[in-house]
Design brief:
The complex is a heterotrimer.
Chain A: H1 2-29, H2 31-34, H3 37-62, H4 70-88, H5 91-116, H6 120-139, E1 144-145, H7 153-159, E2 161-162, E3 166-167, H8 168-186, H9 188-198, H10 200-205, H11 210-236, E4 238-239, H12 247-258, H13 269-288, H14 295-318
Antiparallel strand pairs in A: 1-4, 2-3
Helix pairs in contact in A: 1-13, 1-14, 3-8, 3-11, 3-12, 3-13, 4-5, 4-6, 4-11, 5-6, 5-11, 8-9, 9-11, 12-13, 12-14, 13-14
Chain B: H1 2-9, H2 18-28, H3 33-49, H4 51-54, H5 58-66, H6 68-82, H7 90-108, H8 112-136, H9 140-159, E1 164-165, H10 173-179, E2 181-182, E3 186-187, H11 189-206, H12 208-218, H13 220-225, H14 230-256, E4 258-259, H15 267-277, H16 289-308, H17 316-335, H18 337-346
Antiparallel strand pairs in B: 1-4, 2-3
Helix pairs in contact in B: 1-2, 3-16, 6-11, 6-12, 6-14, 6-15, 6-16, 7-8, 7-9, 7-14, 8-9, 8-14, 11-12, 12-14, 15-16, 15-17, 16-17
Chain C: E1 10-21, E2 24-35, E3 39-44, H1 50-57, E4 65-70, E5 73-75, H2 82-87, E6 90-93, H3 105-110, H4 124-138, H5 157-170, E7 175-179, H6 187-202, E8 206-210, H7 214-220, E9 223-228, E10 231-237, H8 243-257
Parallel strand pairs in C: 3-8, 3-9, 6-7, 7-8
Antiparallel strand pairs in C: 1-2, 1-4, 4-5, 9-10
Classes of the chains: A mainly alpha, B mainly alpha, C alpha/beta.
């Protein structure tokens, strides 16, 4: 146990170092922008949308599974959120129905994966299409404006500015980050996730209800996709049918950069948190230091390759 | 010989009536038969629901020009998945290859030289993928996710985000070679795709290299102990995928006589869906070329079919998702001998 | 393939072999040999180094230091691979990882050394025919529903060993390495394996037999090499020790450890 913990600590220090290195480059490259609050304000308003999903995704990957449907779940639940709010004017009801849809979507995924036995990568490709299809059919290609939501308390709680300055969604991400960390590292359920991800059969023999663990993990993924949907929709007070699509690869990238193993059995919430910040800040940071926005994808690719290579080498050294 | 083989398909030692087994067995031996039937059924459905469109030849010619690029990608991906790996970088190779060709043509009027360099670019990208996966030991999902970002990014940077119009290509031989309409209507790229499908079938099922891929995907440890050079097999596999992706990108760019920086980005999940509908398992160790072939046609024809039937195009993704989930459930069902026996009972022949 | 089949003293000999996995010393300065027409029982607890030893001989692992001699001629570890080892006339039957589960029997038989037709593709007909012969004649499959096309997953434990052993026999090895071949086999199947080992001896070949079950090993071996924590702790000829004495000795070794 000592070695595994040490290895994880080493990973987490490396990713933190990468983050520090990147920000050092930013500050050197454009001190005017990066020593002022504005850019960080921008980070804090945009990163949480996929950052929160990345945190939830960490549990899925630690389990040894994959979920590619979350962008569509985000869109579907955001659509329902918009519709219910427009129909009833009650934002709390809209939010409730929205997260219920997220949970239901996660439950459908779990059903296909656990009961029918479809491998999660394939099943969630299928549901990704299916849920997006539902969005297309219901929305009929049109968006939904939710300007009225701005007046509500809910809006302030979700995406308001704390003290007029600090974006609430960042507070949510921080809170959830701590919560997920405690769950994975200090709670019994977290250790179940780790064991099942490591060796499903042994876990079953140890008495862990593997089906229940998987179902809960996929349902929470759906829940937080819905939550991210609420936040991202409220931030711009608008829903659009292709919402969420851009988050697929960035969310996965955040998890992988963070160091969580794609084979399951090991997960680092801290790593994902830092990974999300890296991915999210690259975009703004690259433009701020003078490279055109076109460089963003390229640098994403480089950063992922470099950090994962570091992990691969760190892990190889041990064996 | 024949009855022995068919016995095997229907479950060893199940002790069932040899009559059924011979009859079912004969059909079960045809690779990808269920998917072929689904495809024919789907077309039949479209013919009934939208006779004006589906009883004429035009729609089919349209398919034969749009489906080959994702089809070729799917065939390559089938080998990759059979080998126990995955490649998420192919949409980026489409973009990058398209850029290389369009750029070289637009600025230097190169055609065949551009073609060779385009395929070469795909080979190099595939080689880099293979090296990262074997030498650094990075799982292919992460490796190809990152290289995908990288090559898309590079394409965007080089092209400045602009699209290139290369309509002048139409007058040249190379255009005719790859996208000519035989008899004015039959798109020749479908023949290219067919040729590649046949070749890849032989590679996977009849060559030593293909057998090495299958064993590698089945069990890496076993592959090593039976003397397969796993690293070399993986590298060649990804190089092959790179070359095929570049070729698909080339067909796409030439057919449209345009290059745009985000070309190919929509293919990622569509191509994967086609492969899984075709019956290839994500776990590796087997690859159904015929299944991918018809799976690509199924996925490629759904949108047209839906629209022609008068249903809104919005339903396309929903139907694709449903088809994928049903198809994969069916494949899972058929994998279990007990369940196959149940099906066999439906076809029982009574003396 | 010109192998000088008869004029050598040791089919395989390891000299001062060291194998380190990082800091862990899996094999510590081991010297080990198998003579011409000898059955050597390789005994030791889990983690003693038996599998590592085999992996070095068969080219799956490269040692940190040491020399390998096959038929008294030194073999460089540089180009040493499983393929080379097969060419040298050494075959291995592993406990579990010899065969590809989803692949058919005939593919498993020839993988890595496929018979090719004139276009460079696999001669499927030929491979199937030969595999069929081996199945029926050598291994004696009268199996219900098992044919050359059956995937390995449909075979029982004993049938799988039959295929792996048949494969080793077909390729006419001078040295056959058996890695715990009787695990999870029925008594009848165990008897078959032991008979096979006797056949190896009778036909003038050699065998390295790794086994936990002393009752099996003792019967068929000429000599016992005992490994403990990466080192050879004892080499005993069969005539020097009885089964009971051997069992007692091994027990004393394992209890000594826990001190």
């Amino acid at each position: 146990m000592k070695t595994a913990a040490a290895r994880q600590a080493r990973l987490e220090i490396s990713i933190a170092a990468v983050l520090a290195g990147i920000f050092l480059l930013f500050i050197i490259g454009n001190p005017k922008v990066f020593t002022r609050f504005d850019i960080y304000y921008s980070f804090m308003s945009t990163i949480p949308f996929f950052g929160i999903m990345a945190l939830a995704m960490t549990l899925v990957v630690t389990l040894g599974e994959m979920d590619l449907s979350f962008p569509s779940v985000l869109a579907l639940s955001a659509l329902v959120f918009g519709k219910v709010f427009t129909l009833t004017g009650n934002i709390w009801l809209a939010a409730l129905v929205c997260v219920l849809i997220g949970l239901a979507a996660g439950a459908i995924n779990a059903l296909l994966i656990v009961r029918v036995g479809i491998p999660s990568l394939v099943a969630t490709i299928g549901t990704m299409f299916f849920f997006r299809g539902m969005v297309n059919v219901i929305a009929q290609g049109k968006g939904i404006a939710l300007v009225k939501a701005k007046e509500t308390l809910f809006y302030s709680l979700a995406v308001g500015r704390i003290g007029g300055v600090f974006p609430a969604q960042a507070a949510w991400m921080l809170l959830l980050g701590v919560g997920f960390w405690i769950l994975l590292n200090r709670h019994r359920f977290g250790s179940h996730i780790l064991f099942v991800g490591d060796n499903m059969e042994s876990s079953r023999m140890m008495g862990i209800n593997v089906e229940r663990v998987k179902t809960i993990v996929f349902m929470q993924m759906g829940f937080f996709a819905a939550f991210a949907g609420i936040l991202s929709t409220l931030e711009v007070t608008y829903f659009w049918p292709s919402q969420g699509q851009g988050y697929l690869l960035t969310t996965l990238a955040a998890v992988f950069i963070g160091g969580t193993s794609v084979f399951g059995g090991m997960g680092t919430i801290f790593g994902t948190f830092v990974g999300a910040i890296i991915i999210g800040s690259l975009e703004a940071g690259i433009i701020a230091i003078g490279l055109t926005g076109f460089w963003i994808q390229l640098i994403y690719g480089l950063i992922i390759m470099v950090s994962v290579s570091i992990y691969a080498i760190l892990l190889k050294k041990k064996s | 010989m024949q009855s022995n083989d068919t016995n095997a398909i229907n479950g060893a030692g199940s002790g069932k009536d040899p009559e059924i087994r011979t009859h079912i067995g004969k059909w079960a031996r045809i690779e990808g038969l269920p998917i072929i039937l689904v495809f024919l059924g789907l077309i039949g459905l479209f013919m009934i629901a939208a006779p004006k469109t589906f009883l004429g030849y035009y729609i089919y010619m349209s398919f034969l020009s749009t489906i080959p690029p994702p089809l070729i990608l799917g065939l390559g991906l089938t080998l990759i998945i059979a080998g126990g790996e995955i490649d998420l970088s192919f949409p980026s190779i489409i973009a990058f290859a398209g850029f290389v060709f369009a750029y070289l043509f637009k600025n230097y009027q190169w055609t065949w030289a551009a073609f060779i360099l385009t395929i070469l670019a795909g080979i190099i990208i595939g080689l880099i993928n293979g090296l990262i996966i074997t030498k650094i030991g990075m799982p292919s999902i992460i490796a190809t996710l990152s290289t995908g970002f990288f090559w898309t990014g590079l394409t965007v940077v080089f092209s400045g985000g602009l699209s290139y119009n290369i309509a002048e290509l139409e007058k040249l031989n190379i255009y005719e070679f790859f996208v000519h309409r035989i008899g004015g209507i039959f798109p020749v790229q479908s023949l290219w795709a067919l040729g590649i499908a046949v070749i890849l079938w032989f590679v996977l099922n009849r060559s030593a290299f293909g057998e090495h891929i299958l064993f590698m995907g089945d069990n890496l440890q076993v592959a090593k102990v039976v003397g397969i050079n796993v690293d070399r097999t993986k590298i060649v596999l990804f190089v092959l995928m790179g070359a095929l992706s570049a070729f698909a990108g080339l067909l796409l760019t030439i057919e449209n006589t345009t290059f745009w920086a985000t070309q190919g980005s929509g293919f990622l999940l569509i191509v994967m869906a086609a492969v899984f509908i075709g019956g290839t398992s994500i776990f590796g160790g087997q690859g159904i070329i015929v299944g991918t072939f018809f799976g690509s046609f199924i996925v490629g024809s759904i949108e047209a079919g839906i629209v022609a039937t008068g249903i809104q195009g919005f339903y396309t993704r929903l139907v694709v998702g449903l088809v994928l989930l049903v198809a994969i459930s069916f494949h899972l069902f058929m994998e279990k001998p007990e369940k196959r026996a149940i099906l066999a009972n439906f076809f029982k022949f009574h003396r | 393939m010109t192998l000088d089949r008869n004029h050598y003293e040791c089919i395989v000999r390891l000299e001062n072999l060291q194998l380190n996995y990082g800091k862990v010393e899996a094999l510590k300065n081991i010297s080990f040999e198998v003579k011409n027409n000898e059955i050597v029982g390789l005994i030791g607890d889990n983690g003693a180094g038996k599998s590592s030893l085999i992996k070095v001989i068969t080219g799956v692992e490269k040692p940190t230091r040491g020399k390998l001699f096959v038929r008294d001629k030194e073999i460089s570890f540089k180009g040493h691979s499983v393929k080379k080892v097969h060419d040298l006339g050494i075959e291995t039957v592993y406990q579990t990882s010899s065969l590809g589960e989803k692949q058919s029997l005939w593919r498993n038989f020839f993988v890595g050394r496929q018979i090719k037709n004139r276009w460079g593709l696999i001669d499927v007909q030929k491979e199937k025919t030969i595999a069929q012969e081996m199945l029926l004649e050598k291994i004696g499959f009268r199996g219900v529903g098992i044919t050359v096309d059956s995937p390995i997953s449909e075979l029982s434990g004993g049938e799988r060993q039959g295929v792996a052993i048949g494969r080793a026999m077909y390729f006419d090895a001078d040295l056959i390495i058996l890695d715990e071949p009787t695990v999870a086999l029925s008594l009848k199947e165990v008897a078959k394996v032991l008979n096979f080992v006797r056949e190896i001896k009778d036909s003038g070949r050699s065998c390295i037999y790794i086994e936990h079950n002393m009752y099996h090993v003792y019967e068929v071996c000429d000599r016992f090499v005992i490994l403990d924590r990466g080192e050879v702790v004892n080499v005993i000829e069969k005539h020097e020790i009885s089964l009971n004495q051997l069992n007692e000795y091994l027990l004393s070794l394992s209890t000594k450890k826990s001190v």
